[in-house]
Amino acid sequence: MYVLFDVLHLYYLPQYLPVQQKLAGQNVKTAFVFYRSIHDEIMEQIAHDNDLEYTWVEDDKEATSFYLQEKADWVFFANSFAHLDELHQVSKSAQIGHGIGPKACYYTKSDTAMTVRFVEGAYRCERLKTMYPENEFVDVGFSKLDSLITGKEPGFDLQQLGLDPNKPTLTYAPTFYPSSIECFAKDWPADFNDFNILIKPHYFSIAKEKYHRQKALLEHWANFDNVYLAKETDYNLVPFMASSDILISDASSALFEFAALNKPVIWCDFLKLRWSYRGLFSYRFKKRMDEDFGEYANIAVHAKHYKELRQLVLEQYRQPSQLESIRMELAEKLAGRLDGKASDRVLSYLMNQQ
Q1: InterPro entries under this entry (predicted)?
Q2: Is 119 a domain residue?
Q3: Is the predicted pLDDT of residue 284 greater than 60, yes or no?
Q4: Strand ranges, E, within 278-339
Q5: Could you tell me if 343 and 283 lie in one domain?
Q6: Residue 243 falls inside a structural domain
Q7: Are 64 and 42 in contact (CB under 8 A)?
Q8: Can you tell me the distance from the alpha carbon of 13 to that of 194, in angstroms, rounded to the nearest whole number?
């Protein structure tokens, strides 16, 4: 068997790597297709560190040409792909999502039919089958969490990051839009000086020029002694989750991934919305979010304003089991079976298709 992984964005890798490692363990040939960007050196370093074979392409047309040339058994995608009709002449396609958040695009990614889509949990699997009855969906779980659930991910050496191992640790993991970043106090790490703070922004907040204001704030916060700001090489949220007692986020997949580990989360309801998403245009924000958004909101305590944040963090840190039953009920709905074997189930499916 020969399997390729389409890596349009760096942040697809945490979902792909557990599957690739299982395939490599069965002596299956694998390779990654990287798209040229401002982070080429980082991608090459990651490939070197993980002993990955890879090739470079400029865009999806060049990627398609490569796929037609290679004739792999399977090509994995983390999102839709415009040239499936051509690809399917020589290879099968598989989709494995890079997040489990509340955005409606989770479902619309299936508008273009892959050979199979690996899904997180029975609820989402059945809902997708109802929406796209001609497509194949297989419930495997969320492979990104496998190493956390099995205890193979040790997390960070906090002292090595310049932090205090005797302090509790919180992670702030905002998404790029709609984001809470611009609504935080300019010097907020000083308000949490009794915590280590790990800041793991979305890749776009660092990489895309349109979010330069977010990047400036993030770099300002990195100057505080109790803060570690993720470097560009810290593409994976998994070590941050392993190292943290509590997480602060907004409408990000990170919030649900952390809650699935049965750790407390604070959901920031204070968001910076573009004018085109406010007032009369607020329907655009609602359209961007999944119809189950309201139910998913129960997985966390909510900070309506920044001024409420510290008290909520302290309450959740001192009483981490407060929302445990709701977390675990919704975690199963969002992430499926939490047994650390999602990538094993992907492997099993692929091997049975030979």
Answers
A1: Glycerophosphate_synth, TagF_C
A2: yes
A3: no
A4: 301-303
A5: no
A6: yes
A7: no
A8: 33
